[in-house]
Design goal:
9 helices; alpha/beta
Length: 241
């Protein structure tokens, strides 16, 4: 079953104000390390322009702004305005320490108002599984990337077999209860847990990325495999159909 965009938008709007706190606690702070790995990988590609899709409250975009050269143009895009409001508030709270070339825009990752071949890199962290059509999202990413540009997907994955029973107990039972206490919206985190359980493993997601026209695909598992960083490239010389 594909996520319903209106329901996903409404859900994230309800939890926006407590979203960051819940992430820190539910991940035991590991989300900071995962994002650091993502930023380091993007840095190795030396992009001049980066689009962070499903930017949410802006954590990845802000981390990119801190970790990449000041000349790098960074745009965070999300379709949920309350989450973008949180991102803008965090940028203002930084007291000007974030580069001025970081901006946030409201937009739909399935139909971006972005010209072809506009960015050297696209990132999406923990947002691909919430897309109503993953294939369409990946094809849109390929369209807005320059030939030779890089895609970075940080997403939950299938954990190591020995760890799976412990993880599933936490994901489906403990984390919704804890998140409910933190945010007042237990059902939202029940959905998030179920969406993680339905998401493809590393091999299947890599196949979907290849089907969307990317090459040079590889995945790096982290934290017993519960998260993976997928990297891919729009082939040099690639011409869109």
């Amino acid at each position: 079953m594909q996520p319903d965009p209106a329901a996903v938008n409404s859900m994230f709007g309800r939890i926006a104000r407590r979203y960051d706190l819940a992430n820190r606690i539910l991940s035991g702070g590991m989300d900071l390390r995962w994002r650091a790995r993502l930023v380091a990988a993007v840095g190795r590609a030396h992009p001049e322009g980066v689009l962070d899709l499903a930017t949410g409250s802006g954590d990845v975009a802000l981390a990119l702004a801190r970790g990449l050269p000041a000349k790098t143009r960074i745009v965070g895009m999300d379709f949920c305005q309350p989450m973008l409001d949180q991102a803008e508030a965090k940028k203002r709270a930084s007291g000007g320490s974030q580069p001025g070339n970081l901006s946030f825009v409201c937009g739909d990752a399935l139909n971006m108002a972005v010209p072809d071949a506009s960015y050297d890199a696209v990132t999406i962290a923990f947002g691909l599984r919430n897309m109503a059509d993953r294939g369409r999202c990946l094809r849109e990413i390929r369209r807005v990337l320059r030939p030779g540009g890089r895609l970075f997907i940080l997403e939950f994955s299938r954990p190591s077999r020995w760890f799976r029973p412990i993880y599933n107990l936490y994901l489906l039972h403990i984390s919704p209860w804890l998140a409910g206490a933190l945010t007042g919206h237990r059902e939202a985190y029940r959905y998030l847990g179920e969406s993680i359980g339905r998401f493809p493993d590393r091999e299947a997601l890599s196949a979907e990325i290849a089907s969307a026209g990317f090459d040079a695909i590889f995945a790096s598992p982290m934290t017993f495999g519960i998260v993976a960083l997928h990297e891919a490239r729009r082939p040099p010389g690639d011409a869109l159909p």
